[in-house]
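User: tokens in, sequence out, please.
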């Protein structure tokens, strides 16, 4: 039995108090943990102190370990592991520098692990060629055996693939190749996810996507270009939009579609009704405005009867027609006026019409009337004429 912690997605606040958002990282971290002897505690970073203390409460000896992380770290990357661990190490040489490689495995898996973890250094060289130096150089690189499949805990990668090739022995997952998928994928996260982290968990696909691309580059580095294409095509076969969280059965989809159309149609009916009301309102407003304008322009009107008499007779052997037009006044209607003076002018205007003077469009004539006398002579009524009419009317 042993203890491991993995909380990506769920959140680190489920097991230690923290500002639980990956947009903010502590610049360093000290981790102190105690466990019953002889269990060992493995955490992120470097082991600074490992001592045995007596617990009066538990009435037994405890191993107390103090670890220190010298780089910024995601909250979900912080982890502790407690179990019957043994430790062995190796060194990766990069130019004039060296990187500590530490491996913490259960005691009965030590020999198996020493053989299986030989693939770490070639992988590290591939990633360094593509992405640059390992980003947490001073804290070292570690693989820690865990009761779960794997997780990219910074500088203490969780490993639970049972020392098998592929994805827990499934080599179809890696196009029939022979490398340990968990080691390669989770180590790729040291660059993509740990060193470079998205601001929000909703964008986790970005770092997962680049980490998956790191697998492709590893395959090209170790097996060649053609094998890389085979690996990519194998990955492509698993791209499906069948996530159960968003998958809806056809029957359920049609039901949702009917409900949606019902609401849309209801909305459209209300919208059409509103549009009809708006159209009617606009028409009424237009008519009202036009009437108001007419009332302002038409102050009054004269109403009369028009009689036309035609007399036909022969003169000097020719047929002659004489036409006589007479107007009989019936009434004058006044619609609006603002002053007494304006009323007088309106009455004068309409009385003139009753005398047979009609409107014409002649510039300078105030009321633009025309005197029609046998269709022969036009007579303009000028401003001075109007003044005379008003003067006579006042008398």
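Assistant: Sequence out:
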């Amino acid at each position: 039995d042993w203890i491991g912690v993995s909380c990506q997605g769920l959140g680190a606040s489920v097991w230690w108090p923290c500002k639980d958002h990956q947009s903010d990282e502590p610049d360093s971290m000290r981790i102190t943990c105690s466990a019953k002897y002889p269990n060992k505690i493995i955490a992120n970073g470097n082991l600074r102190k490992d001592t045995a203390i007596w617990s009066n409460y538990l009435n037994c000896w405890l191993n107390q370990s103090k670890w220190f992380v010298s780089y910024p770290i995601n909250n979900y990357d912080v982890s502790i592991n407690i179990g019957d661990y043994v430790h062995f190490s190796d060194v990766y040489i990069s130019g004039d520098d060296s990187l500590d490689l530490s491996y913490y495995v259960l005691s009965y898996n030590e020999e198996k692990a020493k053989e299986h973890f030989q693939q770490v250094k070639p992988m590290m060289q591939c990633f360094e060629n593509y992405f640059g130096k390992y980003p947490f150089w001073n804290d070292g690189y570690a693989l820690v055996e865990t009761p779960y499949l794997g997780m990219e805990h910074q500088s203490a990668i969780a490993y639970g693939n049972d020392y098998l090739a592929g994805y827990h022995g499934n080599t179809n997952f890696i196009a029939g190749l022979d490398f340990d998928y968990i080691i390669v994928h989770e180590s790729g996260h040291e660059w993509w996810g740990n060193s470079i982290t998205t601001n929000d968990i909703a964008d986790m696909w970005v770092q997962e996507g680049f980490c998956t691309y790191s697998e492709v580059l590893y395959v090209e580095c170790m097996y060649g270009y053609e094998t890389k294409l085979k690996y990519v095509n194998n990955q492509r076969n698993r791209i499906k939009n069948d996530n159960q969280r968003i998958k809806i059965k056809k029957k359920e989809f049609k039901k949702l579609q009917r409900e949606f159309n019902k609401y849309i149609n209801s909305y459209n009916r209300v919208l059409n009704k509103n549009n009809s009301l708006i159209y009617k309102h606009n028409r009424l407003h237009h008519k009202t405005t036009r009437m108001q304008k007419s009332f302002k322009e038409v102050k009054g009107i004269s109403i009369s009867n028009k009689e036309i008499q035609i007399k036909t007779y022969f003169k000097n052997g020719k047929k002659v027609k004489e036409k006589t037009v007479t107007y009989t006044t019936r009434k004058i209607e006044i619609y609006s006026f603002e002053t007494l003076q304006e009323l007088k002018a309106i009455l004068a205007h309409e009385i003139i019409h009753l005398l047979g003077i009609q409107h014409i469009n002649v510039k300078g004539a105030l009321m633009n009337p025309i005197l029609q006398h046998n269709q022969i002579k036009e007579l303009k009524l000028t401003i001075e004429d109007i003044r005379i009419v008003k003067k006579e009317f006042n008398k």
